[in-house]
Design brief:
heterodimer; A: alpha/beta; Barwin-like endoglucanases; 6-stranded mixed beta barrel; B: alpha/beta; Rossmann fold; 2 domains; 5-stranded parallel beta sheet; 41% helix; globular
């Protein structure tokens, strides 16, 4: 049965595409495409009834952001979603530093729901939306 | 056309120093020996995303100004701030970092580098329990067991395996490259057979006899092979995991438990559970066996440990595991440092102030208390009243609430590229690329300092980080001197 929402654990980290994009320049198209993506397990995508490259809304207690869902290319990782480091991921990660200076970039509980009609914001739009500049 | 050899690549902590660049008309046109990231930087650095002129925000928009005006404005903000943060420093030279320390002391600010959101927890742990480590050259020549825990060098340090670990020809250990190629060929062959079986082109062979299963939990053949072995422990199958001889998939936030379980196993204690952190105990026994039976092992670890639950405690237990292993064999451990000179910023800050990151000069002397004097915490508490960001992009790498406060207060950005922080900046000063348009020194992840070369001239009017900081420091001193004269006159 297709679910409306899926509870998952959010991880953020590096991908080679994000690395290539950031060296091109963070305002480049490569960086935008690499970082506005969420990698999901194939079975989890089936549960939500979505196909590769469908937009989804990822929400945590710290915020929500629209991203493009892409099937994780290797192995299975049920219940885990992976977003490359970038302003999109950091709009929703857990900022608590547990008194040592380091925010919790990995392991934030999150929810994913299909949002095929919602647009992915460009970096400029996202920054304007979040910080008004 | 000039070919420059032995160029150090200014991207990641591997600092590959065998890059060959072909220069034509003051532009890099060809890169040899580099990885995808290296090519992207050397061929793409000059592109449209470069900041062309200094800018100041006026009526909500960034408008071009002269360099003198931008430097004066930056100095004014810093000289008048009560508790400014000076953040970044990891993608610039040690020479620029040194002036950064001088500037932070002059204005009584907080000096912090990207380690705080990277390997800061590793440093905290090393300060508590120490670190048995070595240089990458030792690992290249001697290591026969390479463990990547919570890191994906194929994506973040693409030539790490090829230059320093399993796929390099060492004096005492051979490259494992051929065995990897064989594995890739075997996997491709298996896929072809599976596909033929599925399509019914060939008949499915009879079920295999039970003999094969008589041996309970045999160690994987890849761990029984001769020569170098790679084990990857991660929460997802990364590209590096695909290349490994053995891959262990841990549940998120469970690395601490898994490592404690391995510690128990190498002390020959029995575990009375079936799984730890989602990993069957038999798998962990195989890893423990491989660890104890190697001649020279190394654990490289990354953000998978420092950013997951437990944070610096994960590193504590990793180093404790090393201590246990060193009673049985030879083992070392090394953090996979990200930015090319984040290690340098820790080194420079330490030799100048005594502390590696999160150094607070607001009381007139250096103070260090991670959780209090670290930039994310200060921003979350809303205490800072100005920020200078150089050679980093917290606008993209800090959590939302921290960036919110940074964007509310005056923000000075020194960077060659238009990044998220520069888009939020109030004063934006373009700089030359260190390692391409400016020379300097950088520290590799194993604390070996290497020279960065200047291979082309920077665009006209664009200064290096070092020169920009020196000018800001001079201007700050001039503004403060004027203030003093006024106070004395009054």
């Amino acid at each position: 049965m297709v679910q409306q929402k899926l509870r998952v654990t959010l991880l953020t980290g590096r991908t080679i595409e994000q690395g290539v994009g950031k060296e091109q320049g963070k305002s480049s198209q490569e960086y935008f495409e690499a970082c506005s993506t969420v990698y999901m397990d194939e079975e989890d995508m089936k549960k939500l009834g979505i196909k590769n490259n469908t937009n989804v809304l990822v929400s945590t207690p710290h915020g929500s952001v629209v991203l493009k869902a892409v099937k994780h290319p290797r192995g299975s990782m049920p219940g885990i979603i992976y977003i490359p480091y970038g302003p999109w991921a950091n709009a929703i990660v857990d900022d608590s530093t547990t008194s040592i200076g380091m925010p919790s970039f990995k392991g934030t509980p999150a929810e994913v729901e299909p949002a095929p009609d919602k647009p992915i914001l460009s970096m400029e739009e996202l920054l304007k939306n979040l910080y008004g500049k | 056309m000039v070919v420059i050899k032995s160029v150090t690549c200014p991207i990641c902590g591997s600092l590959c120093d065998d890059i060959e660049l072909t220069i034509e008309n003051n532009e890099v046109v060809k890169v040899k020996n580099g990885c995808a990231l290296c090519e992207s930087k050397f061929l793409g650095y000059k592109g449209e995303h470069r900041i062309k002129t200094p800018m100041i925000r006026k009526n909500g928009k960034l408008v071009p100004v002269s360099l003198d005006e931008a430097i004066h404005k930056a100095a004014e903000i810093l000289a008048n701030a009560n508790y400014p943060i000076l953040y970044g420093w990891s993608s610039t030279s040690c020479e620029a970092q040194r002036i950064g320390v001088e500037l932070a002391e002059e204005i009584g600010g907080v000096l912090d580098n990207t380690a705080v959101v990277c390997h800061g927890p590793s440093i905290l742990s090393v300060q508590e329990v120490g670190i048995p480590t070595c240089t990458l050259g030792q690992i290249r020549h001697r290591a026969d067991l390479i463990i990547y825990w919570g890191c994906d060098p194929w994506s973040a340090h693409p030539r790490h395996l090829e230059r320093y670990t399993a796929f390099t020809e060492g004096r005492f250990e051979q490259s494992d490259w051929k065995s990897y190629i064989q594995k890739v060929k075997a996997t491709a062959g298996k896929k072809k057979i599976d596909s033929a079986l599925r399509r019914g082109v060939v008949k499915r062979p009879k079920a295999q006899s039970l003999r094969q299963y008589e041996l309970v939990n045999p160690p994987p053949p890849t761990l029984m092979k001769e020569g170098r072995k790679i084990i990857v422990v991660d929460v997802r199958k990364s590209m590096t995991a695909e290349m490994a001889d053995y891959f262990i998939q841990v549940e998120p936030n469970k690395d601490y438990e898994v490592m404690q379980a391995i510690r128990a196993l190498i002390r020959d204690q029995e575990l009375d559970v079936d799984k730890v952190g989602g990993v069957p105990v038999e798998y962990l026994e195989e890893v423990a066996d491989a660890m104890v039976n190697c001649n020279f092992g190394v654990i490289f670890f990354g953000m998978g440990l420092t950013q997951s639950a437990g944070k610096f405690r994960n590193i504590d237990v990793a180093i404790s595991l090393l201590r246990d292993l060193n009673k049985r064999t030879k083992f070392v451990i090394m953090p996979m440092r990200g930015h090319f000179n984040v290690t340098g910023s820790n080194v420079v800050f330490t030799w100048q102030s005594g502390y590696p990151f999160g150094v607070d000069f607001s009381l007139g002397y250096p103070r260090y208390n991670p959780g209090e004097t670290t930039s994310v915490d200060i921003l979350l508490r809303g205490e800072s009243d100005a920020t200078l960001v150089i050679a980093a992009d917290p606008g993209a790498t800090f959590p939302r609430r921290a960036v919110e406060h940074m964007a509310k207060t005056p923000l000075i950005v020194i960077d060659p590229h238009m990044n998220a922080t520069a888009m939020l900046g109030d004063v934006v000063i373009p700089s030359a690329f260190v390692g391409i348009e400016a020379e300097g020194t950088a520290y590799r992840m194993d604390h070996v300092p290497l020279p960065l070369k200047k291979v082309v001239e920077p665009p006209q009017g664009i200064l290096s980080d070092e020169e920009i900081l020196r000018r800001i420091l001079e201007e700050v001193r001039a503004i403060k001197a004027k203030k003093m004269v006024k106070v004395e006159a009054a």
